[in-house]
Amino acid sequence: MVVGPGASIEGDVLGPGDLVVRGSLRGRVSMGGTVRLEADSDVRADIRAPRVVIVDGASFQGEVDTSGEGSPVVPAAGEAAPAGATGIAALARRMRLRGT
């Protein structure tokens, strides 16, 4: 999953794979793979993932948990992901997208 340059996400980002952020992200992140914050990204979020990479030039504020304790993907409070819901369709149900 990629948050492209100029894109702005506000909310929870959850998924079994990797996440690359090149835009703006506010909320909580829980991924099963690697979270990579690229240069020029602006992230204000708590991140839970087995691997987190913060590239020089990225702006980050939040907490990072790479302990692997607990489930790497937790649905938003009171919400369960529908069976077979993956990728951007499942993500769109959990957050608001702004930008281009």
Structure, described:
The protein is mainly beta and 100 residues long. The chain has one helix and ten strands; from the N terminus they run βββββββββαβ. Strands 2, 4, 6, 8, 9 and 10 form a six-stranded mixed β-sheet that branches. The chain starts with a strand and ends with a strand.
**What is the average per-residue confidence, as pLDDT, rounded to a whole number?**
80
Q: Which outline best applies? A: globular
How far the N terminus sits from the C terminus, by CA atoms, comes to 16 Å
Question: What's the number of structural domains?
Answer: 1
Provide a quick synopsis of the model.
The chain is mostly beta strands.
Task: List the main descriptive attributes of the protein structure presented here.
1 helix, disordered C terminus, globular, 10 strands, about 100 residues, single chain, six-stranded mixed β-sheet, mainly beta, four-stranded parallel β-sheet, about 5% helix
Q: What are the SSEs and their pairings?
A:
Blueprint: E1 2-3, E2 7-15, E3 19-21, E4 24-31, E5 34-37, E6 42-48, E7 51-54, E8 59-61, E9 64-65, H1 87-92, E10 95-99
Parallel strand pairs: 1-3, 2-4, 3-5, 4-6, 5-7, 6-8, 6-9
Antiparallel strand pairs: 2-10
